Amino acid sequence: MLTQAIEDYLKAIYKLQHSDEHGGRVTTSVIANRMEVAAASATNMIKKLAEMNLLMYTPYQGVELTASGEKIALETIRHHRLIELYLSQALGYSWDQIDAEADRLEHAISEEFEDRIDEALGYPTVGAHGEPIPTKQGQIDHPKYRRLSELQDGQSAVIRRVSDRNPQMLRYMENLQLRLGTRVEVTAKAPFNGPLQLKIDASKEVSLGLEVAGSIFVETD
Protein backbone atom coordinates (compact mmCIF):
# COMPACT_ATOMS: atom_id res chain seq x y z
CA MET A 1 0.00 0.00 0.00
CA LEU A 2 1.46 3.34 -1.08
CA THR A 3 1.05 6.10 1.45
CA GLN A 4 1.51 9.85 1.09
CA ALA A 5 4.74 9.61 3.10
CA ILE A 6 6.14 6.95 0.77
CA GLU A 7 5.34 9.03 -2.31
CA ASP A 8 6.87 12.12 -0.68
CA TYR A 9 10.11 10.29 0.07
CA LEU A 10 10.37 8.81 -3.42
CA LYS A 11 9.73 12.22 -4.99
CA ALA A 12 12.34 13.88 -2.77
CA ILE A 13 14.95 11.19 -3.46
CA TYR A 14 14.38 11.41 -7.20
CA LYS A 15 14.86 15.19 -7.15
CA LEU A 16 18.01 14.87 -5.04
CA GLN A 17 19.44 12.22 -7.38
CA HIS A 18 19.02 14.58 -10.31
CA SER A 19 20.17 17.77 -8.60
CA ASP A 20 23.43 19.53 -9.36
CA GLU A 21 24.57 19.24 -5.74
CA HIS A 22 23.91 15.58 -5.05
CA GLY A 23 23.49 13.60 -8.34
CA GLY A 24 23.48 9.78 -8.22
CA ARG A 25 23.32 8.10 -4.83
CA VAL A 26 21.94 10.23 -2.00
CA THR A 27 22.94 9.92 1.65
CA THR A 28 20.52 9.38 4.53
CA SER A 29 21.50 12.70 6.13
CA VAL A 30 20.71 14.61 2.93
CA ILE A 31 17.31 12.90 2.70
CA ALA A 32 16.57 13.63 6.35
CA ASN A 33 17.44 17.28 5.81
CA ARG A 34 15.20 17.54 2.73
CA MET A 35 12.29 15.82 4.53
CA GLU A 36 12.91 17.87 7.69
CA VAL A 37 12.98 14.79 9.94
CA ALA A 38 15.50 13.17 12.28
CA ALA A 39 18.11 10.93 10.67
CA ALA A 40 16.68 7.91 12.51
CA SER A 41 13.22 8.53 11.02
CA ALA A 42 14.67 8.83 7.53
CA THR A 43 16.66 5.62 8.02
CA ASN A 44 13.54 3.72 9.11
CA MET A 45 11.62 4.87 6.04
CA ILE A 46 14.55 4.08 3.74
CA LYS A 47 14.72 0.52 5.11
CA LYS A 48 10.98 0.16 4.53
CA LEU A 49 11.30 1.39 0.95
CA ALA A 50 14.18 -1.03 0.38
CA GLU A 51 12.02 -3.91 1.65
CA MET A 52 9.35 -2.84 -0.86
CA ASN A 53 11.97 -2.91 -3.64
CA LEU A 54 11.49 0.79 -4.28
CA LEU A 55 15.11 1.70 -3.68
CA MET A 56 18.54 0.15 -3.14
CA TYR A 57 20.12 0.96 0.20
CA THR A 58 23.63 0.24 1.42
CA PRO A 59 24.51 1.66 4.87
CA TYR A 60 26.98 4.56 4.65
CA GLN A 61 26.81 4.50 0.84
CA GLY A 62 23.46 6.17 0.25
CA VAL A 63 20.37 5.13 -1.69
CA GLU A 64 19.28 4.88 -5.30
CA LEU A 65 15.75 4.39 -6.61
CA THR A 66 14.86 1.17 -8.38
CA ALA A 67 12.85 1.25 -11.61
CA SER A 68 9.66 0.74 -9.56
CA GLY A 69 10.54 3.53 -7.16
CA GLU A 70 11.42 5.90 -9.99
CA LYS A 71 8.12 5.18 -11.73
CA ILE A 72 6.14 6.16 -8.62
CA ALA A 73 8.32 9.25 -8.07
CA LEU A 74 7.80 10.46 -11.64
CA GLU A 75 4.04 9.92 -11.44
CA THR A 76 3.90 11.96 -8.22
CA ILE A 77 6.06 14.69 -9.77
CA ARG A 78 3.82 14.74 -12.84
CA HIS A 79 0.74 15.25 -10.66
CA HIS A 80 2.51 17.96 -8.69
CA ARG A 81 3.71 19.98 -11.67
CA LEU A 82 0.44 19.72 -13.59
CA ILE A 83 -1.46 20.91 -10.51
CA GLU A 84 0.99 23.78 -10.00
CA LEU A 85 0.54 24.91 -13.58
CA TYR A 86 -3.24 24.64 -13.37
CA LEU A 87 -3.34 26.63 -10.13
CA SER A 88 -1.15 29.29 -11.72
CA GLN A 89 -2.75 29.57 -15.15
CA ALA A 90 -6.42 28.77 -14.47
CA LEU A 91 -6.91 29.93 -10.90
CA GLY A 92 -4.49 32.83 -10.65
CA TYR A 93 -2.35 31.52 -7.80
CA SER A 94 1.00 33.26 -7.43
CA TRP A 95 4.40 31.59 -7.86
CA ASP A 96 4.99 31.28 -4.14
CA GLN A 97 1.59 29.70 -3.31
CA ILE A 98 1.35 26.82 -5.77
CA ASP A 99 3.99 24.45 -4.37
CA ALA A 100 2.31 24.02 -0.98
CA GLU A 101 -1.13 23.62 -2.56
CA ALA A 102 0.18 21.04 -5.05
CA ASP A 103 1.83 19.12 -2.19
CA ARG A 104 -1.58 18.70 -0.60
CA LEU A 105 -3.38 17.71 -3.81
CA GLU A 106 -0.87 15.56 -5.69
CA HIS A 107 -1.68 12.38 -3.76
CA ALA A 108 -5.44 12.69 -4.09
CA ILE A 109 -6.22 13.22 -7.77
CA SER A 110 -7.37 10.35 -10.00
CA GLU A 111 -5.78 9.45 -13.33
CA GLU A 112 -8.86 10.81 -15.10
CA PHE A 113 -8.51 14.14 -13.30
CA GLU A 114 -4.83 14.22 -14.23
CA ASP A 115 -5.72 13.62 -17.89
CA ARG A 116 -8.32 16.40 -17.86
CA ILE A 117 -5.89 18.90 -16.35
CA ASP A 118 -3.29 17.89 -18.93
CA GLU A 119 -5.77 18.40 -21.78
CA ALA A 120 -7.09 21.69 -20.39
CA LEU A 121 -3.53 23.05 -20.22
CA GLY A 122 -2.71 21.95 -23.78
CA TYR A 123 -0.43 19.03 -22.83
CA PRO A 124 2.40 21.11 -21.33
CA THR A 125 5.96 19.86 -21.01
CA VAL A 126 7.24 22.56 -18.63
CA GLY A 127 5.85 23.44 -15.20
CA ALA A 128 5.14 26.79 -13.56
CA HIS A 129 8.69 27.10 -12.20
CA GLY A 130 10.30 25.87 -15.42
CA GLU A 131 10.83 22.24 -14.36
CA PRO A 132 10.14 19.49 -16.91
CA ILE A 133 6.81 17.65 -16.55
CA PRO A 134 7.17 13.86 -16.87
CA THR A 135 5.04 12.23 -19.54
CA LYS A 136 2.28 9.83 -18.61
CA GLN A 137 4.65 7.04 -19.68
CA GLY A 138 7.25 8.19 -17.15
CA GLN A 139 9.68 9.86 -19.53
CA ILE A 140 11.32 13.14 -18.60
CA ASP A 141 13.90 15.50 -20.09
CA HIS A 142 16.54 17.16 -17.91
CA PRO A 143 17.78 20.19 -19.85
CA LYS A 144 21.06 21.60 -18.59
CA TYR A 145 20.92 25.24 -17.63
CA ARG A 146 23.50 27.44 -15.94
CA ARG A 147 22.95 29.23 -12.67
CA LEU A 148 22.62 32.97 -13.08
CA SER A 149 25.30 33.34 -10.39
CA GLU A 150 27.82 31.67 -12.76
CA LEU A 151 27.51 34.33 -15.46
CA GLN A 152 30.25 36.90 -15.91
CA ASP A 153 30.15 40.61 -16.59
CA GLY A 154 28.65 41.28 -20.03
CA GLN A 155 26.93 37.91 -20.44
CA SER A 156 23.21 37.75 -21.21
CA ALA A 157 20.73 34.90 -20.90
CA VAL A 158 17.05 33.96 -20.63
CA ILE A 159 15.52 32.66 -17.40
CA ARG A 160 14.29 29.09 -17.92
CA ARG A 161 13.81 27.69 -14.42
CA VAL A 162 13.74 28.81 -10.78
CA SER A 163 14.02 26.89 -7.54
CA ASP A 164 10.68 26.48 -5.76
CA ARG A 165 12.20 25.67 -2.36
CA ASN A 166 11.71 29.10 -0.77
CA PRO A 167 8.35 30.92 -1.15
CA GLN A 168 9.80 34.20 0.16
CA MET A 169 12.53 34.08 -2.46
CA LEU A 170 9.93 33.42 -5.17
CA ARG A 171 7.99 36.49 -4.04
CA TYR A 172 11.20 38.51 -4.18
CA MET A 173 11.93 37.29 -7.73
CA GLU A 174 8.38 38.13 -8.78
CA ASN A 175 8.69 41.64 -7.36
CA LEU A 176 11.87 42.13 -9.41
CA GLN A 177 10.07 40.78 -12.53
CA LEU A 178 12.51 37.86 -12.76
CA ARG A 179 10.04 35.52 -14.45
CA LEU A 180 10.41 32.62 -16.85
CA GLY A 181 11.35 33.85 -20.32
CA THR A 182 12.80 37.11 -19.02
CA ARG A 183 16.05 38.23 -20.63
CA VAL A 184 18.76 39.40 -18.24
CA GLU A 185 22.24 40.80 -18.72
CA VAL A 186 25.01 40.93 -16.13
CA THR A 187 26.33 44.47 -16.25
CA ALA A 188 28.71 44.12 -13.29
CA LYS A 189 29.84 41.42 -10.87
CA ALA A 190 31.40 42.46 -7.58
CA PRO A 191 34.43 40.45 -6.37
CA PHE A 192 34.54 38.25 -3.25
CA ASN A 193 31.04 36.84 -3.70
CA GLY A 194 29.53 40.26 -4.10
CA PRO A 195 26.19 40.93 -5.81
CA LEU A 196 25.41 40.97 -9.50
CA GLN A 197 24.21 44.08 -11.26
CA LEU A 198 21.51 43.00 -13.71
CA LYS A 199 19.67 44.63 -16.56
CA ILE A 200 16.21 43.07 -16.94
CA ASP A 201 14.60 43.09 -20.41
CA ALA A 202 17.08 45.77 -21.49
CA SER A 203 15.46 48.40 -19.27
CA LYS A 204 15.23 47.80 -15.51
CA GLU A 205 18.45 47.51 -13.48
CA VAL A 206 18.70 45.71 -10.12
CA SER A 207 21.31 44.43 -7.71
CA LEU A 208 20.94 40.71 -6.97
CA GLY A 209 22.62 38.69 -4.22
CA LEU A 210 24.34 35.42 -5.11
CA GLU A 211 21.93 33.31 -3.06
CA VAL A 212 19.03 34.44 -5.23
CA ALA A 213 21.09 34.34 -8.42
CA GLY A 214 22.11 30.77 -7.59
CA SER A 215 18.42 29.75 -7.50
CA ILE A 216 17.76 31.02 -11.02
CA PHE A 217 18.68 28.83 -13.99
CA VAL A 218 19.29 30.41 -17.36
CA GLU A 219 19.96 29.59 -21.00
CA THR A 220 22.86 31.64 -22.28
CA ASP A 221 23.13 33.14 -25.76
Task: Give the key terms.
40% helix, SH3 type barrels, two-stranded antiparallel sheet, 221 residues, six-stranded antiparallel β-sheet, 8 helices, Arc Repressor Mutant, subunit A, alpha+beta
What does this structure look like?
- Helices cover 40% and strands 18% of the residues.
- By secondary structure, the chain is α+β, with helices and mostly antiparallel strands.
- Among the domains are: 4-65, Winged helix-like DNA-binding domain superfamily/Winged helix DNA-binding domain (Arc Repressor Mutant, subunit A), CATH 1.10.10.10; 146-220, SH3 type barrels, CATH 2.30.30.90.
- The strands form 2 sheets. A 6-stranded antiparallel sheet has the order 3-8-4-5-6-7.
- A hairpin with a 3-residue loop joins strand 6 and strand 7.
- The chain starts with a helix and ends with a strand.
